[in-house]
């Protein structure tokens, strides 16, 4: 059992805190959002993540998981401190590292205070960068700590990027494909070996810069895979082939792999758009123009526009046509709408002056904050009533079992655009719908 501190109770921080407490460690999780901490103490989660609430509850009950708004408390009581604060995009698309910097300064202040209070005692901390950051960020963390802490404090710096996916984050914590650890000392390495011992997967120990790069390179590669299959989907549409079959045929080659070959409206979320952009930027700073990734971004953007083009192909003019949008979150099993394709599609449809009706199993409240003036309904049948067109942008399981006969009876025109190629278009056609997928042979 180790004393672990996590700074930042966002998706990465909170899941990591819950996961480490479930493994039997004593964890203190801190956030500067006092309201969030108050809610967490009352077992109210700041976001929806399947299975998280139960683990947090268990950790709090066993007194293995504590929430605080004080970084000092974390630094005082934890041998290992994970920095898991946000690195949001700046206007130029770089990673904003000011939160990481602020936290580093706070850690240094806390260490200085502890030094003054515990004179003569050995003080050691392992400080770990967990958020997704550009290469060389940990170097800055190290320099800052060296500069701001008095002598007599020992610390190691490490980079241990997180690879969890929203919606399956708990599972990803306990069963990851790999754990990547960039650490410079044997002392730091031993601590990681201990805390990750219960997790059975390949563990890669490397230098800090390589660890930081692995994260950006992995997310960008996955984004590239998605844009690649979307480009293939476009050529499929032009020649009358079916991208679903093409993807299957490609994916059976183990060197390609079948995952992340789902064509659709493109990637969204708090990670891929931001990370691809930050990676392009940091490469630029070092004199390398990563044009391949710029094309990945372009294709992703075009996929949003493709939905509007398909809508126009069906309806001619969109002005004052009622269009229902099902699926507002950036992917299923989350209420997260950050960089969601739905935001782009709604904006484009608003420009066309379409009348919008939106539905989502979890994300309505979040979307209301961005578009307060649109009609929303938790009832899919109400949300599709009088619609000329129904567009699916997220492949929620619940959408597959909708009563499409009832939906069709309520609609003005029987048009469906499936932006995720997840509906059974044969049965929809049997019901009389006119269906359009992405890169799918569906005429
Ligand atoms: C992603 C990575 O998958 C995680 O490994 C990583 O830890 C995380 O970013 C992060 O950096 O924190 P996440 O953003 O939660 O995780 O979501 P994904 O499941 O990867 O999906 C991203 C987007 O790609 C979604 O909009 C999804 O709909 C889209 N996607 C995914 C496709 O369009 N096609 C696919 O074949 C797969």
Account of the protein in words:
It is elongated, with a radius of gyration of 24 Å. An eight-stranded mixed sheet has the order 3-2-1-4-5-6-7-8, with helices on both faces. It has helices spanning 11-22, 34-41, 52-61, 71-77, 98-117, 137-148, 169-174, 186-195, 208-239, 243-251, 272-285, 291-315, 341-351, 364-370, 380-384, 397-400, 404-410, 425-430, and strands spanning 3-7, 26-30, 65-68, 80-83, 123-129, 153-159, 179-183, 203-206, 322-326, 355-359, 375-376, 389-392, 415-418, 434-436. The chain has 443 residues and is α/β, with parallel strands linked by helices. The protein is 46% helix and 14% strand. The mean pLDDT is 96. It starts with a strand and ends in a 7-residue tail after the last strand. It has two domains: 3-206, NAD(P)-binding Rossmann-like Domain (Rossmann fold, 3-Layer(aba) Sandwich); 265-436, NAD(P)-binding Rossmann-like Domain (Rossmann fold, 3-Layer(aba) Sandwich). Helix 4 packs across helix 5 (98-117) and helix 9 (208-239) crosses helix 11 (272-285). The structure holds uridine-5'-diphosphate-glucuronic acid (UGA). Residues 132, 162-166, 219, 222, 226, 260-262, 264, 266-269, 271-272, 275, 330-331 line the site of uridine-5'-diphosphate-glucuronic acid.
